[in-house]
Structure formats: structure tokens, C-alpha cells
Design brief:
Blueprint lengths: L1 H23 L5 H8 L3 H29 L1 H20 L4 H29 L5 H26 L6 H7 L2 H10 L7 H6 L3 H12 L1 H15 L16 H16 L2 H14 L4 H29 L1 H24 L5 H16 L2 H11 L6 H29 L1 H23 L8 H9 L1
Helix pairs in contact: 1-4, 1-5, 1-6, 1-8, 3-4, 3-5, 3-18, 4-5, 4-7, 4-8, 5-6, 5-18, 6-7, 6-14, 6-17, 10-11, 12-17, 12-18, 12-19, 13-14, 13-18, 14-15, 14-16, 15-16, 15-17, 15-19, 18-19
Length: 440
């Protein structure tokens, strides 16, 4: 039974793997697409961020489509968008065609970013939900690592190296599409559409015969006599604070600077005198650190809780970014020291805010409002990510690395203070128990 739930979660997390790959693969191409398309620093920021605008659209589409057609079918549609994006961006000869292809990939990333963790959360038993939802974050960082590694392997394949880097994404997208035929629909979505018998069959396989009937009754109780949900209901007095927590945590996850490292690591290393080959090799170390400490988070998140991990991680991120800032101010920007602080920052992020945000976002909202609440929170995440990604090259150029990384360190401090005061602990309870606790 545990193996069955794990296999379902692995299949769903392929959406996370594609999410990570598509957002990170661009980092290995920027030093090649910038001269190919004749991009300024600002133009590079907009081009890199084109995927993120698609993400915002994808999140909005995912919420409504996921409620209407089901989590499973919409994830399959996202897989098709990933395939189209991979082929389109790899074959682009004009900037406009390249950007359109990346936007389509962004729509798929947006859909995966909300539906993959939501689908896992709605199928996972309460005692292991944090670990299983974190599996999606693990898949994201594996996708990032695969992107970094494939970029490194393909860097010397000639003038079209960046095209091959982008085309690789089609392979896992095809795997996701066909794998989704093998998994069930979310039991909570089935109950919402009156398919209680089908939901019970799924719950028996995921939770066991003894608890399946009880869990089904809990789900029915939270959805009983309720009309189709609306976004306006997110502003109800008991729900609005949860929405704000979701939005603020999502924004902090991005504005603490994680994707400035993921997208622009080769550029940062090149700025301190590293060659393209060396810079791409160092991004593999970044991806490996991300992967190892995400595994650490998976071990700890159901044991110590989400809040404690975020508190420890935010403190560590702040210290690493402060060290990086001091390094730049002292003009001792050696590649080794820069790498040490960046790896430290990645380690603290991967063991805390990286996976914890996705877990908490699936747990905050009532069953009938989960997709809509997550949609708003994750849209805020992608908007924040877009702003940071667009502005980072310009900030680095005009403000210097010292000031830029100091700003991100102060944002980490603000996140720490916010979590200490406002974020509740959610470990060890069913989604229905959390709903009763938060909104009654």
C-alpha cells in the first residue's frame, strides 16, 4: 500500500521534474543566446523571464481546469505543452518565436507547479504527507540538476549547443504524459463531483480498508451542501489570513534570491573570471547541493515540522548572502569563495523554504478552495520570480554584487520575522482536521 502511494507520487512529481528542468535549463544557454539574438542585459532579463509570464497564466488555468477536468487530465495536457515548448525553443531562429515557445513552456510549468503537489497532497496519508509532497520538490531539484548536467555535457557540441540543451526536455515530458495513464484521479476531486464510490476505491488503495470509509466521510462532510466555490470566498474572514500567509510565503520564497542563483549562476561565475566550461561545471555542484539538502528536508519535515525548518533555513540563507555581499565589497571575489557561499545558501534553502512552501501551500486551504487559494499564492510566486529574474542582471550591473546580495540578505531576515509571528505548524494532521482547525 505504501509502495502504491509512493509510485503515484513519483509519477505526479515528474511534473515537478519538468518544472525544475525548464526553469533551470536556460542558465546554460544565456551566454550563447545573448550574442545569437543580440540581447542587452535588460533584454536578456526579459528573455529569460518570458517563461515566467507563461507560468502566471498556467497557474490561473490550472486552478479552474483542475477543478473542472480533474488533476490527472490537466497534468497530461501540461506534458503536451512541455513537448511543444522543447521542440519550439530548440528550433527557434527568431527571438519572437523563441519567446513564444518559452511562454508555452511557462504555461506548463505553471500548471505543474500547482497541480503536482496538490494531487500528491490529496492522495497522501496525513502522517507522510509532508514527505510525499516534498517528493515534488525533490523532483524539481532533480530536474534542475539534470538541466545543469546536460548543459555541461552539451556545451561543446558546436554552435547549436543551446538548441540541444533545450530539446532534452522533450524526453521527460513524453514520460510524464504516458505515465499519467497509470495513476488514479484525486479522491477529493472525485467526491466533489459526486463520484464517491470511485473515491472510496482510491482511498482503500492509499489509506487501507480500515480508515478509507472514515476518511471518505470526513471529505464528504467538508464538501457537503456546498455550492461551486468562487475566488471571492477566499476573502471570507477566516480564510483571508490563510490566503495572506500563502501569498507572503510564496513571494518570500522567490525574493530571497533563489532563482537569481539558478538562472544566472554561470553569469555570476563568469563575472569573477571563470570560463564557460568551468562555470557550467560549478552549476552541477549547485544542483548536487540542492538535491542532497532537499533529501535532508524530506527526512526532517514530518518529524520537526514545516515552521522550524523555515526558521533555521532563513537564518542560514541570510548569513550566506551577507557573507557573499561582504566578499563583493572587499573585492576578494575569487571563484572558490563565491562558490562556497552560494553552496551554503543553496543548502539552507533546499532544506527549508524550498520544499516547505509547497507543503504548507497544499495544507492551508479548505478542500473546496484549495485549487483557488493555491492559484493565487503561486501566481504571486511567479510574479515575484519574474520581477527578481528581470531585475537581477541590471541590479548586478548598476548596484554591484555587494549591494545586490545584501538586499537579498535583508529580505531573508524579513521572512524569518514573518514566519516566527504568523505561520502556523501543520504537520501530522489530515487536510480535513486542518480545515476544521483553521476555518471551523
Amino acid at each position: 500500500m505504501k509502495l502504491y502511494v509512493l509510485l503515484i507520487s513519483v509519477v505526479a512529481s515528474l511534473g515537478g521534474l519538468l518544472f525544475g528542468f525548464d526553469t533551470a535549463v536556460i542558465s546554460g544557454t544565456i551566454n550563447f543566446i545573448q550574442p545569437y539574438f543580440g540581447l542587452s542585459e535588460a533584454g536578456l532579463g526579459w528573455t529569460v523571464s518570458s517563461l515566467l509570464f507563461g507560468c502566471t497564466v498556467g497557474v490561473f488555468l490550472a486552478g479552474k481546469a483542475g477543478d473542472h477536468y480533474g488533476r490527472k487530465k490537466v497534468l497530461m495536457a501540461a506534458a503536451l505543452f512541455f513537448i511543444i515548448s522543447a521542440v519550439g525553443s530548440a528550433s527557434a531562429h527568431s527571438l519572437s518565436f523563441f519567446v513564444i515557445s518559452r511562454v508555452l513552456g511557462g504555461i506548463a510549468v505553471g500548471v505543474a507547479s500547482i497541480l503536482s503537489p496538490m494531487y500528491i497532497a490529496e492522495l497522501a496519508p496525513a502522517k507522510s504527507r509532508g514527505t510525499l509532497v516534498s517528493l515534488n520538490q525533490l523532483a524539481i531539484v532533480i530536474g534542475i540538476q539534470v538541466a545543469f548536467f546536460s548543459n555541461y555535457l552539451l556545451v561543446n557540441t558546436g554552435d547549436n549547443n543551446w538548441r540541444w540543451m533545450l530539446l532534452v526536455m522533450a524526453a521527460p515530458a513524453i514520460l510524464l504524459f504516458f505515465s499519467m495513464f497509470l495513476v488514479p484521479e484525486s479522491p477529493r476531486w472525485l467526491v466533489a463531483w459526486g463520484r464517491n464510490d470511485d473515491a472510496l476505491k482510491v482511498l482503500i488503495k492509499t489509506s487501507g480498508k480500515e480508515s478509507a470509509s472514515f476518511e471518505l466521510k470526513e471529505i464528504e462532510e467538508t464538501l457537503k451542501n456546498q455550492e461551486v466555490s468562487t475566488f471571492r470566498e477566499l476573502l471570507a474572514p477566516k480564510v483571508k489570513p490563510l490566503l495572506f500567509i500563502g501569498i507572503i510565503l510564496a513571494v518570500f520564497q522567490q525574493i530571497t534570491g533563489i532563482n537569481t542563483i539558478m538562472y544566472y549562476a554561470p553569469k555570476i561565475f563568469a563575472d569573477v573570471g571563470q570560463s564557460n566550461d568551468s562555470a557550467l561545471l560549478q552549476t552541477i555542484l549547485i544542483g548536487s547541493t540542492n538535491l542532497v539538502f532537499t533529501l535532508v528536508a524530506m527526512v526532517l519535515i514530518d518529524r520537526f515540522g514545516r515552521k522550524l525548518l523555515i526558521i533555521i533555513g532563513s537564518t542560514g540563507m541570510m548569513l550566506m548572502l551577507t557573507g557573499l555581499s561582504i566578499l563583493y565589497f572587499s573585492s576578494q571575489t575569487s571563484g572558490v569563495l563565491v562558490l562556497v557561499f552560494i553552496l551554503g545558501y543553496i543548502a539552507f534553502f533546499a532544506a527549508s523554504l524550498g520544499p516547505a512552501l509547497w507543503v504548507v501551500a497544499t495544507e492551508l486551504f479548505p478542500n473546496r478552495l484549495r485549487s483557488k487559494g493555491m492559484s493565487i499564492a503561486i501566481v504571486a510566486l511567479w510574479i515575484a520570480c519574474s520581477i527578481v529574474s528581470i531585475s537581477f542582471p541590471v541590479m548586478l550591473e548598476r548596484l554591484s554584487g555587494g549591494i545586490t546580495f545584501l538586499i537579498f540578505a535583508l529580505i531573508c531576515l524579513a521572512n524569518l520575522l514573518y514566519v516566527l509571528k504568523y505561520v502556523p505548524e501543520t504537520k501530522g494532521k489530515t487536510l480535513e482536521e486542518l480545515e476544521k482547525e483553521f476555518v471551523g
